[in-house]
Design brief:
213 residues, alpha+beta, two-stranded antiparallel ribbon, 7 strands, binds adenosine-5'-diphosphate
């Protein structure tokens, strides 16, 4: 299923990239090929976001996860893919932030939120990622000092294809909302225009020690 959607796109893109290097085409035509490749890349992004969401055949198993480890591996991953635009990510995570969830889904959730924070920020600005235990909850906050949103914009978050980015898919937050809902968590946004945004996610705390009692 996955391949049957991706292969045709790859083939068409491959030919366009060949034509771009072929001097029998005019530079005007090559400009069109370039645009077509851009559009295909966009289609690929939308499809892969849908595919990661739609896994009807496998119920994602929940496990006991330490949010600290997940956040650390997510920030490492963003570093190694060069997605940080020189932004510094400050991780402030206390011990004992355990929850019950599927690691892959948690990673997807945090990557989407942190990517949005970076994309809203000016080059080089700080993004703070915090997690701490508050009573029976683990509370995760992603704080940026970027472009922020109006109340009207915040109200539209999570709607499919809502994006103010020229190359956005507008699917990231829809997926995040689904994942948070699946684990009966909560997600909220505090934002003000040109000041920045704080995204807060809250999950039930999982008390490991009760396993051994
Ligand atoms: P995408 O990132 O592909 O645009 P998302 O669903 O991840 O799609 O986000 C939807 C929109 O929400 C973004 O285009 C942006 O306008 C807004 N948004 C999300 N997070 C932030 C943030 N931290 N600061 C400002 N705007 C944000
Ligand atoms: Mg996004």
């Amino acid at each position: 299923m996955t391949q049957s959607i991706r292969n045709p796109l790859t083939v068409v893109k491959g030919f366009l990239q060949l034509y771009e290097k072929d001097n029998s085409f005019s530079s005007n035509q090559k400009c069109h090929f370039n645009l077509m490749v851009d559009e295909l890349n966009m289609a690929e992004q939308v499809i892969s976001q849908f595919l990661t969401m739609a896994k009807p055949d496998q119920e994602q198993a929940a496990e006991i996860v330490d949010v600290k480890d997940v956040l650390r591996s997510v920030t490492d991953l963003l570093h190694s893919y060069g997605l940080l635009h020189d932004n510094r990510i400050e991780l402030k995570v206390t011990d004992d932030c355990t929850i019950s969830a599927n690691i892959m889904e948690l990673k997807q959730l945090f990557i989407n939120i942190i990517k949005n924070a970076i994309e809203a920020s000016n080059y080089g600005d700080l993004v703070i990622v915090k997690a701490e235990k508050e009573k029976d909850f683990v509370v995760i906050k992603v704080i940026d000092y970027g472009k922020g949103m109006s109340e009207e914009e915040v109200a539209l978050l999570g709607a499919p294809f809502y994006s103010l980015k020229s190359k956005g898919t507008g699917l990231g937050l829809m997926i995040c909302f689904n994942i948070v809902e699946k684990y009966n968590g909560k997600i909220g946004f505090a934002s003000s225009k040109n000041q920045g945004t704080t995204t807060t996610i809250r999950f039930s705390y999982y008390d490991k020690t009760k396993l051994f009692r």
